[in-house]
Amino acid sequence: MTAVRAAERGRAPRDGEWEYLLRTWRGLNVPEGWRAEIDEGQIALVPPPHRHHHATAEALQYSLYAELPAELGIYQALGVHIAPLGKLLLPDLVVLPRVLVAAEDSQDNAPFEAADARLLVEITSGTTARTDRTRKLWAYARAQVPLYLLVDRFDERGPMVTLYSDPQDGMYKRGEGVPFGQPLTLPDPFHTTLPTEKFPR
C-alpha cells in the first residue's frame, strides 16, 4: 500500500471572501479555450491545452463510457468546489451522477461539490503538471473524491497513468501507476480497463 500526500499550501478564503470570489468567477468573460479557477484566495486563468490533451480526453471518455453505469455522466470543464479549502477547480473530466447535473434547481454556472464526484481526471500539460501532481492531488483527497486519475505524459519516469484511491485524513492511501502502453483497471463502479496505449505521448 502506498501513502500519497501533497504539501498543503495557501489558505481557504476568509468569511465573505468566497462569495465575492464566486460572484467574480461567474461574471468573467474568459477567452475561448481558457479556464478560470479559484485557488489560494485568487482567480487564476489556465491557458488552452495542447491538442494531445484533447486526444487523451477523448480516448478516456470513449473507454469510460463502455462500462459506465447509466446513472453516471462524464463532463468536461465542469467546476467543482473543494469546500474544506475554498477552492473551485475545473478538472479535465468529471464523472458525476446525471441527476445532479440535470437538477432543475441548479444555478447556471454553479460549481458542483467535489465530494459528489465518482472520479476526477487531470491530464497534465507543461504548465499544469506540478499543480496536478501536488496541490490538486491534496485538494481532491481533502474533498474525499474516491478516485483521482492523473494522466501525466511529463512524468520524469516517462509517460504515466496513476489512479489514486482510498482518501483518508487528507491523503490518498493508494496510488497505482502504469506507464503508457500498459492497461490500468478501474474499480467499482466502472468495471473497466483503460487501454493507455491510445494516449498520445
Automatic annotation (TrEMBL):
<keyword id="KW-0540">Nuclease</keyword>
<feature type="domain" description="Putative restriction endonuclease">
    <location>
        <begin position="30"/>
        <end position="191"/>
    </location>
</feature>
<dbReference type="InterPro" id="IPR011335">
    <property type="entry name" value="Restrct_endonuc-II-like"/>
</dbReference>
<keyword id="KW-0255">Endonuclease</keyword>
<keyword id="KW-0378">Hydrolase</keyword>
<dbReference type="GO" id="GO:0004519">
    <property type="term" value="F:endonuclease activity"/>
</dbReference>
<dbReference type="InterPro" id="IPR008538">
    <property type="entry name" value="Uma2"/>
</dbReference>
<protein>
    <submittedName>
        <fullName>Uma2 family endonuclease</fullName>
    </submittedName>
</protein>
<dbReference type="Pfam" id="PF05685">
    <property type="entry name" value="Uma2"/>
</dbReference>
<dbReference type="InterPro" id="IPR012296">
    <property type="entry name" value="Nuclease_put_TT1808"/>
</dbReference>
